[in-house]
Specification:
The complex is a heterodimer of chains A (about 80) and B (about 425). By secondary structure, chain A is of the alpha/beta class. Chain A contains 3 helices and 3 strands, in the order αβαβαβ. Chain A has a 3-stranded parallel sheet with strand order 1-2-3. Chain A starts with a helix and ends with a strand. Chain B is an alpha/beta fold and about 425 residues long. Chain B has one domain. In chain B, about 20% of the residues lie in helices and about 30% in strands. A 6-stranded mixed sheet of chain B has the order 17-19-14-20-21-22, with helices on both faces. In chain B, strands 8-9-1-13 form a 4-stranded mixed sheet. Chain B has a 4-stranded mixed sheet with strand order 5-12-10-7. In chain B, a hairpin with a 2-residue loop joins strand 15 and strand 16. In chain B, helix 1 packs across helix 2 and helix 6 packs across helix 7. Chain B is globular and about 60 Å long. The model of chain B has no long low-confidence stretch (mean pLDDT about 95). Classes of the chains: A alpha/beta (about 80), B alpha/beta (about 425).
Chain lengths: ~80, ~425
């Protein structure tokens, strides 16, 4: 999906628990996530901490979208 | 460590009044089997027999076990689950060669899940499907289990594992005072310092219930890479805990009869020195854990003075990452590597076949595709249920297995793409 969207001109930030795998598959803006079963949250953390983690990941993804890059990059 | 592996070939199994071995014919008393698999989570066992050449579809298989026993003390098979926690891998082990105990049954599904459910699957002992399983060529004693309600998946997992091991040991006990037809000796003693040292990096899956492997009775969910002697596998230190995914599943029978171990032994002291086994698990959830596993595999290989390491995959999916990183770490230390892997390259096999790769992985052997569509004719008989459950992630979709099957993929075809390479399929690029 990431590759196809970018092919049509939409920049994509891909949140992945395995950034090198995402790069291997052709993603350009890769955002490091938490773990494979839950890339965008941490269910073992309390609600407040989990919320902070979610917010930080989404903000990092938005920043990645807004950052010009010349080579595939991990954020 | 010197192991004498005594074979008692079985060509026929019959139900009878007593459980005993009569030449190449094994007589089994169903009452003995019922008594030995007794478990609060199991309400009954129906013993079905399937011989080579029959047109039979066996389904809902949770494990396969070869009957073995250590007849003269010095530990016993399946330590930590059946046998005491004593060292194994030396002395004498008897095996009922060509006989397989197949544990089958409709384990209750307790809610929808993509991963941690007992996956339904099947094998064919006749027709084109027979190519994909060793058990079209074994005499199969199928334990068709019924389950009590009110237990959890952990209870059911333990019940199916113990049922297979206990029944196998019961049958192997018929060999205790009998002379084997053949004895092979296995030891890693080296007769030449000139030969390259080859290690086997054996990956297993152990993530959670019904996706597990036991080592000496301990679940390997937290396994950090460790060393094994191949003779320990012969004595059942590794036991499958009902691994999800029929296509890439490694059974206890495959751990006992791993063809790569047989092959590494066959040319030990001839073309190489078989230096032992690194046992490790894949599917760690964090990339850093995958890197830790890879670094440790390479460190163990270096400490074992390996010149080469052969890798196989346990299960399917992101476990390729640990193996690829370990291949990279080994190659950077000057240790050559070979990988045996399933293919996940789409219906035509033309897509990128592995989810992750490193440039150092240049020697890869295909053990078959889990994606290629396949048509299978109806079998003369179904052992199991007329309808299996597929797509557990949506709570299950019924698939009738009594008729001919036109399958879009092979996920339910038990063992079709297992990475230790028993099946007679693969892919060659030229």
């Amino acid at each position: 999906m990431t590759v196809e969207m970018e092919r049509r001109g939409l920049p994509v930030a891909m949140i992945s628990a395995l950034p090198p795998v995402a790069l291997e598959l052709g993603a350009n803006r890769v955002v490091r996530g938490v773990k494979i079963p839950h890339p965008c949250c941490e269910p073992t953390a309390d609600a407040e901490r989990d919320r902070a983690i979610r917010r930080e990941i989404v903000e990092r993804a938005l920043k990645a979208l807004a950052t010009p890059i010349s080579v595939p990059t991990i954020f | 460590m010197r192991l004498e592996l005594g074979s008692f070939p079985v060509e026929e199994v019959v139900l009878g009044e007593a459980t005993r071995l009569e030449g190449r014919r094994l007589s089994v008393a169903a009452a003995d089997v019922e008594a030995t698999v007794a478990n609060p989570a199991i309400t009954g066992v129906d013993v079905q027999l399937v011989h080579p050449g029959e047109s039979t579809r066996i389904n809902q298989i949770s494990d396969v076990v070869e009957p073995r026993i250590k007849p003269h003390g010095g530990g016993d098979v399946f330590p930590g689950l059946l046998g005491p926690l004593e060292p194994v891998g030396s002395g004498r082990t008897n095996r009922l060669a060509g006989l397989a105990v197949i544990v089958s049954g409709e384990v209750p599904w307790l809610g929808a899940s993509g991963l941690f459910v007992p996956r339904d699957n099947f094998i064919d002992t006749g027709g084109p499907g027979a190519e994909f399983t060793p058990h079209s060529q074994t005499v199969n004693l199928v334990l068709r289990l019924s389950f009590a309600e009110g237990f959890g998946h952990e209870d059911y997992q333990q019940a199916v594992v113990l049922a297979g091991l206990r029944a196998a040991r019961l049958l192997a006990a018929t060999t205790v005072d009998v002379t084997p037809k053949e004895v092979i000796v296995r030891e890693l003693r080296s007769t030449s310092a000139e030969l390259p040292r080859v290690l086997y990096a054996y990956q297993v899956q152990s993530q959670g219930v019904f996706m597990r492997t036991y080592l000496n009775g301990r679940l390997l969910d937290d396994l950090f890479p460790t060393l094994l002697h191949p003779n320990e596998l012969a004595d059942g230190v590794l036991v499958a805990g009902g691994l999800g995914g029929g296509s890439v599943k490694l059974t206890t029978w495959l751990h006992q009869n791993n063809p790569l171990v047989d092959g590494l032994y066959a040319r030990h002291n001839v073309d190489w020195h078989f230096a032992g086994i690194i046992l490790h698990r894949g599917h760690y959830y964090q990339y850093e854990d995958k890197q830790r596993v890879a670094l440790q595999v390479a460190r163990l290989a270096q400490l074992m003075r390996a010149d080469g390491v052969v890798f196989t995959l346990g299960g399917g999916g992101n476990n390729i990452t640990e193996v690829m990183l370990a291949i990279q770490a080994c190659e950077r230390q000057g240790i050559k590597t070979v990988l045996l892997a399933w293919e996940h390259g789409g219906p035509q096999g033309a897509d990128y076949p592995l989810p992750f790769a490193v440039p150092e992985a240049t020697a890869i052997v295909s053990t078959g595709s889990m994606d290629a569509p396949i048509d299978l004719p109806a079998m003369g008989r179904v052992v199991g249920t007329p309808t299996i459950r597929v797509r557990p992630e949506v709570g299950g979709v019924p698939l009738a297995v009594g008729a001919a099957l036109e399958l879009d993929n092979r996920y339910e075809l038990f063992g079709d793409a297992n990475a230790v390479g028993w099946q007679r399929t693969g892919c060659r690029e030229w």
